[in-house]
Write a structure and sequence with these properties.
Distance between the termini: 16 Å
Oligomer: single chain
Strand content: over 45%
Number of domains: 1
Helix content: under 10%
Order of helices and strands: HHEEEEEEEE
Number of strands: 8
Shape: globular
């Protein structure tokens, strides 16, 4: 379901990195994956990032490796490609601030409470930054990205690039910035979509 750049040159792995590998090593590994040409989203991404938060994300089949999210004009944005084969998301919030003159405008989507969480299959996220408390089950760190398995079909990087995988992942108090999300299925139970203007235009965090 946020791995390194929120602003150019600013690393924000925080507690997520502390639970996996040292932040400097992660940043180096992601850059190495990018240098090897790993590609993230299979579609052209917008020039905007968006925010996603959740009380809890529970996933089966987790993989992660460095990649590039490319815009229509050819701009290449380094990301951490994060794949989860099956996911449940409690209290999902997704928001994007629309650049407009004058008062700010925010598009916000909420869905999924504890009794009826949002669900997704073959979920792939181009992550810019991520914060939260993370618990992995049976994790491999530093695995060759081309050998990753157990995640969404085709979710693997270039030979020799840094990767990591786990049988399962639980992230509580999730806050992430992303450039793209794709999924085979995305079931948003209790969906609410609002366009807020001015003082009411609050993002997920």
């Amino acid at each position: 379901m946020q791995d390194q750049y929120e602003n150019p040159g600013r690393t924000r792995w925080r507690r997520f990195a502390a639970l996996t590998v040292p932040a400097a090593a992660v940043a180096t590994a992601v850059v190495f994956g990018v240098a090897n040409g790993a590609v993230a989203a299979s579609f052209a991404v917008s020039s905007q990032t968006f925010k996603v938060s959740a009380t809890e994300l529970r996933g089966e089949g987790f993989v992660q490796y460095g990649g590039i999210a490319q815009e229509v004009d050819g701009t290449r944005n380094p990301v951490a490609v994060t794949g989860i084969r099956e996911a449940e998301i409690v209290n999902l919030c997704q928001s994007v601030k629309v650049p407009t003159p004058g008062a700010p405008v925010v598009l916000k989507i909420t869905a999924g409470d504890e009794g009826r969480p949002a669900t997704a299959s073959d979920l792939v996220i181009d992550v810019v930054s991520l914060e939260g408390d993370v618990l992995f089950r049976d994790i491999n760190i530093g695995q060759d990205a081309s050998t990753l398995e157990g995640g969404p079909p085709g979710a693997r990087g270039e030979p020799g690039a840094f990767g990591q995988q786990a049988d399962a992942v639980t992230i509580t108090n999730l806050r992430q910035v992303a450039r793209a999300i794709s999924a085979q299925t995305f079931n948003l139970r209790g969906l609410e979509l609002k366009v807020n203007v001015g003082e009411a235009a609050k993002e997920c965090f």
